[in-house]
Amino acid sequence: MTSRRTDLATPRTPRGFADRHGPELAATRAMAERIRATYELWGFEEIETPFLEYTEALGKFLPDQDRPNAGVFSLKDDDDQWLSLRYDLTAPLARHVAENVQKLPKPYRSYRFGPVFRNEKPGPGRFRQFLQFDADIVGAPSVSADAEMCMMMADALEAVGVRRGDYVIKVNNRKILDGVMEAIGLGGDDNAGRRLTVLRAIDKLDRLGVEGVRALLGAGRKDESGDFTKGAGLDEAGAERVLSILKAKTAGNLETARALFDEFGSTATGQDGARELSAIATLVEQAGYADRVSVDPSVVRGLEYYTGPVFEAELTFEIADENGQPIRFGSVGGGGRYDGLVGRFLPENVPATGFSIGVSRLQAALTALKGADAPAAFGPVVVLVLDRDRIGDSMALAARLRAEGVAAEVYLGASGMKAQMKYADRRKAPLVVIQGSDEREKGEVTLKDLIEGAKAAAAIADRSEWTESRPAQVTVPEARLVEDVKAILARHA
């Protein structure tokens, strides 16, 4: 009698992480290639940085002396140095530029694609590992670089299939908000924490609405679950002054920039911000992007290191949620100018600007946008094996298909015909290739179109009719294998 093992490990995915499978990965790869091609059209080159960085290089998170795990996953190496999984793709770029500052062309245009990691509480749609696709220009102080970022974001969205009119690139300037915070007494290093709380409160406008933001600017807010988030502690007048920025949007970009100057130009910082927005508005108008790039004072971005223009890519089309209610996807990417980040490693600051696309969120939006019109994702052609001692012949058939660019595999299990057909269905094979001893002697192969076969099966109720008709099945000379397989695939392309 065989004893039952009791030392089995429990198969479980870590919280906040997920396995991804063929169709999703293929869709991600196809989308990434279109974004990549767009960036390269604009003169950007690809670089790849390590998943791990020295914790002190991340910038946003200062290392705790005991364990620097606030927001990042960290470990010590054999030199007793703290390492952390990268939180974003911007801090590694800043380190790379500083390390190679004498070798790189200035301005330096680069893009990066890959996973980033957040040691934060996971939740529905909130993962600890996700993909980002970044592009940056380092070494260009002019807002012309920020305008190019906005225009390239527009081109990237259209390249992956978002129609013009279904998105908008919003641009604002943090200097305007910084000027307001100076005016209400939140300037200086001592108030950095409260300023960040203000930024993150405004960044939640789309989700919480004006009243929710107002609560976070004041004492704080309790959400539906009862959790309380402490606010920035502004008095009523200060909160109202911050919220008034959101009301400065007018019909045109230049008009909005002028309104921001008139209303919030009481400080030199605020004046600079409004002038830079006016310059960006002029550039996108001259380049023909004014219908896609919009000056919008509601954009702030929630990170402290932004120093000037900030931008966000927002999808404007609506879809139905699980309850049938219309919702908007909102932001799928954003960024801004961060002139101080590279300067953490060098004697002087280095101007830089860039943006990041949230790949998973954009992919979900594209799936919703295409809906039923999305093409079916097919697996490989499956070559069945009816004679186990002649599996080499089946491998030869698959090799001929692959040599002509057709994805094909041989069934490697030990089951019979019925189980092999079920396997082909699970692999989403568009067709199977069958060659038993009779076909081999005649120099023939049988091709069974599984897509047409499924349609025919739905219309056949009688088993004898099915057996007699063998729907969507054809026997052809082996010499025509590739030609006929390609013809079937072309029908379903």
Molecular structure report:
This protein is an alpha+beta fold. The chain has 2 domains: 22-51 and 86-373, Bira Bifunctional Protein, Domain 2 (BirA Bifunctional Protein, domain 2); 381-492, Rossmann fold. Helices cover 38% and strands 20% of the residues. The protein has 16 helices and 18 strands. It has an 8-stranded mixed β-sheet. The protein has a 5-stranded mixed β-sheet with strand order 15-14-16-17-18. Helix 11 (391-403) links the parallel strand 14 (381-383) and strand 15. Helix 3 crosses helix 9 (268-286). The radius of gyration is 29 Å and the shape is elongated. It starts with 21 loop residues before the first helix and ends with a helix.
The parts where pLDDT drops under 50 for at least 5 residues are 61-66
Number of helices: 16
Radius of gyration: 29 Å
Structural class: alpha+beta
**Global morphology:** elongated
Q: According to CATH, what is the topology of the largest domain?
A: BirA Bifunctional Protein, domain 2
Beta-strand percentage? Answer: 15-25%
Number of domains: 2
The main pleated sheet reads as: 8 strands, mixed
Mean pLDDT: 88
Distance between the termini: 54 Å
Order of strands across the widest beta sheet? 1-5-6-13-12-11-7-10
CATH architecture of the largest domain: 2-Layer Sandwich
Multimer state: single chain
- How would you name the CATH homologous superfamily of the largest domain? Bira Bifunctional Protein, Domain 2
Protein name: Histidine--tRNA ligase
Catalytic activity: tRNA(His) + L-histidine + ATP = L-histidyl-tRNA(His) + AMP + diphosphate + H(+)
Pfam families: HGTP_anticodon, tRNA-synt_His
Region (Disordered): 1-20
